[in-house]
Design a protein that fits this description.
The complex is a heterodimer of chains A (about 280) and B (about 350).
Chain A: H1 2-6, H2 24-37, H3 41-54, H4 73-78, H5 81-85, H6 87-99, H7 107-115, H8 139-155, H9 159-174, E1 188-189, E2 192-193, H10 198-207, H11 216-226, H12 233-245, H13 263-276
Antiparallel strand pairs in A: 1-2
Helix pairs in contact in A: 2-3, 2-13, 8-9, 8-10, 10-11, 10-12, 11-12, 12-13
Chain B: H1 26-42, E1 52-58, H2 65-76, E2 85-90, H3 105-117, E3 121-126, H4 134-140, H5 143-146, H6 150-153, E4 154-156, E5 162-166, E6 176-180, H7 181-185, E7 188-192, E8 194-198, E9 202-204, H8 216-219, H9 224-228, H10 231-241, E10 245-256, E11 264-266, E12 270-274, H11 277-287, H12 296-302, H13 305-310, E13 312-316, H14 319-322
Parallel strand pairs in B: 1-13, 2-3, 2-7, 3-4, 7-10, 8-10
Antiparallel strand pairs in B: 1-12, 5-6, 8-9, 10-11, 10-12
Helix pairs in contact in B: 2-3, 10-12
The chains are: A mainly alpha (about 280), B alpha/beta (about 350).
Chain lengths: ~280, ~350
């Protein structure tokens, strides 16, 4: 936690690597990690001021202030909840997230398919979330947005959110690779099976918390196999969080060993450790 | 749909113009059409190619010999980089240690030493398209073992400072694009790809390698905005908008078949280098027994690819001495080179 606090920028935000400019994603993850670990209020309030100021009029957040577009990082910021962000900014953020979906599920894409004589497949009906507006839906932004929206339901029961969450789950399950895990979201390229990744398998499992799908045991088995051999701290943290969400983390698992090269790594490692100690802030 | 016009075939996504974000009234439509006609008349014309120098080196493996050879190549191309900022841009994609996916660290180190010997201030930068942990990728690819203090000179271009660049006469639908500041601010961007086949564009070489300058921190992983705007078109746009460049292609062990990730090792035993990325890529294609005239992004970027090939002066090994047919996916059988360009 001290490492994280030491890398906070003077403007209140966090960079990806110490010394760099503040970005929304590491700032939001650092805040989540410090909240989960019960850090002192002052750096938190400082960071929240940076984050609130970075919110765009459309309700979303840009990846960094130099970018004039709201993107997937909105989901990470929204995970902080209404208590941290304030109720009006939080509501605007939820509205922005609910308005996003993969471009392939838009009416124009479906009409185009129809005109070409190809009936829309399940692929074109399952609306996930894109990284960047106007592009396709992918696994990580869909998983993060599902986590953010699920938190919303604990605060306020909104039926359209339920429907999007159902669809998000279906999207993730439809995009599992043949080995049971997930990569960025292309389980096949041309006619060839693509390999899954440890980090996306972990975050997808976390987002599918509570799912009764028959795909989950196979995904958990793969995640457990990935855990000792994955090569990044980020992957290790998401795998721990994903397995914990399904009560599948082996009790005798060794402590994290991979180098934490970025603020994101440090924050996720803290979040995984807090979850192992009983406080999973993603699922609160 | 041709494979290069979509990212995931199952999604059938368009790479051509789409009306989805466009709402025009009749006046705007007519005005726009008139402007487009005038612009089409004034804009890109087939380029007349000056003689371009491309070096082809025969190198059997990643041994010490590389260091001297790369120095000799830079000398042959008379690069004046004293006091200049040079960014080496290798191709880092995946952790898989069993496949030749990433640019070999020995070649990057040889280039680093050679540019330093010429008095340049050299750094290394990459922004992978699928995996977020760029430094971990560099570590797994052997960069930390091979290049002393690499962490101090390495920039993750995915989360570098960014600047919005207005694209000059874009081939894609993108009017502007955020790009990594390190790639924009350097005096020479050295594209150092692996010589590979590619399931969406046929061959991935020094021009396609420029995708790594587009920040994933803004556009995500993958950088899907480029796929919707057309992969060949975006490659051509980056080639024209990042114009202070040089290429050193790692073809000592390349990849054939289902590249750029799932293909097989192809020991081609070459390094190809030059100031013009298009000329270098067209030369690489001929070495791979791929017809450069059938590579869409080359056609978009230079117009007359045949003229580009004819105006390329080769030094080192003649192409015929090093030509080795890279296996192609059945979908790409049509780009196989038949005879000479």
């Amino acid at each position: 936690m001290l490492t994280l606090l030491a890398s906070q920028n003077r403007d209140g935000g966090w960079p990806y690597r110490p010394g760099g400019p503040s970005w929304t994603e590491p700032t939001a993850y650092a805040l989540l990690a410090l909240l989960a670990c019960g850090a002192a209020a002052e750096p938190l309030e400082w960071a929240l001021r940076w984050l609130r100021a970075a919110q765009r009029p459309d309700g979303g957040w840009p990846p960094q202030p130099a970018v004039a577009e709201s993107t997937w990082v909105t989901a990470v910021a929204t995970l902080l909840g209404p208590a941290a962000l304030g109720e009006p900014p939080y509501r605007r953020a939820i509205a922005w997230l609910m308005a996003q979906s993969g471009r392939e599920t838009g009416w124009l894409s479906r009409l185009r398919l129809f005109l070409l004589g190809n009936p829309p497949s399940a692929e074109h009906r399952l609306a996930g979330w894109p990284w960047y507006p106007g592009t396709s839906a992918w696994v990580t932004p869909t998983a993060l947005t599902m986590l953010a929206l699920r938190k919303t339901l604990r605060w306020e029961n909104v039926p359209p959110v339920h429907a999007r969450l159902e669809m998000g789950s279906s999207f993730l399950l439809a995009h599992a690779c043949s080995d049971g895990g997930w990569n960025y979201g292309a389980e096949r390229v041309l006619s060839y099976d693509a390999d899954s990744y440890p980090e996306t398998t972990g975050v997808a499992l976390l987002a599918l918390h509570g799912s009764a799908s028959r795909q989950i045991p196979k995904a958990c088995k793969l995640a457990r196999a990935y855990l000792p051999v994955c090569q990044t701290s980020e992957a290790e943290s998401w795998l721990r969080l994903g397995l914990l969400a399904h009560q599948q983390l082996p009790p005798d698992i060794a402590p994290p060993m991979r180098p934490q090269r970025t603020v994101l790594h440090a924050a996720l490692a803290l979040l995984a450790r807090a979850a192992q100690q009983g406080r999973n802030i993603f699922l609160e | 749909m041709p494979p290069w016009r979509c990212w995931r075939a199952r999604r059938s996504r368009a790479a051509t113009f789409s009306w989805s974000n466009v709402q025009l009234n009749r006046r705007e439509f007519l005005t726009g059409s008139a402007v487009s006609l005038i612009a089409a008349g004034c804009a890109r014309r087939p380029q007349a190619h000056r003689e371009t120098l491309v070096s082809v080196l025969r190198l059997k493996d990643y041994g010490q010999e590389l260091y001297g050879e790369v120095r000799r190549v830079l000398a042959a191309h008379r690069l004046n980089v004293r006091g200049k900022r040079v960014l080496l841009k290798p191709n880092l994609i995946e952790f898989d240690p069993h496949r030749p996916i990433n640019t070999h660290p020995m070649l990057v180190h040889a280039a680093l030493e050679a540019f330093r010997a010429l008095g340049a201030e050299v750094s290394i930068g990459e922004g992978p398209g699928h995996r977020r942990n760029t430094l971990d990728l560099a570590d797994a690819a052997g960069y930390f073992q091979t290049i002393p203090h690499v962490e101090e000179i390495f920039t993750d271009l995915n989360v570098d400072n960014v600047a919005r660049v207005r694209l000059a006469q874009p081939h894609s639908r993108l009017g502007s694009l955020y790009l990594a500041q390190s790639a924009l601010a350097c005096d020479l961007l050295v594209s150092m790809p692996k010589m590979k086949t590619h399931h969406w564009v046929g061959a991935t070489l020094s021009m396609k390698n420029l995708f790594g300058t587009v920040p994933g921190g803004v556009y995500g992983w993958p950088k899907n905005v480029l796929h919707w705007a057309g992969i060949p078109q975006c490659i051509a746009d980056l080639y024209h908008n990042l114009s202070r460049h040089f290429a050193i292609v790692d073809g000592i062990v390349g990849m054939e078949g289902n590249g750029p990730i799932q293909g097989k090792a192809k020991p081609a035993g070459v390094v190809v280098a030059g100031r013009d990325l298009a000329a270098v890529d067209a030369t690489c294609c001929q070495i791979m027994s791929i017809d450069p005239l059938r590579i869409e992004y080359l056609k978009l970027a230079v117009g007359d690819v045949g003229e580009l090939c004819r105006s390329t002066r080769q030094i080192g090994e003649p192409i015929n001495n090093v030509r080795t047919a890279f296996d192609l996916l059945p979908e790409w059988a049509g780009i196989r080179l038949k005879g000479q360009v």
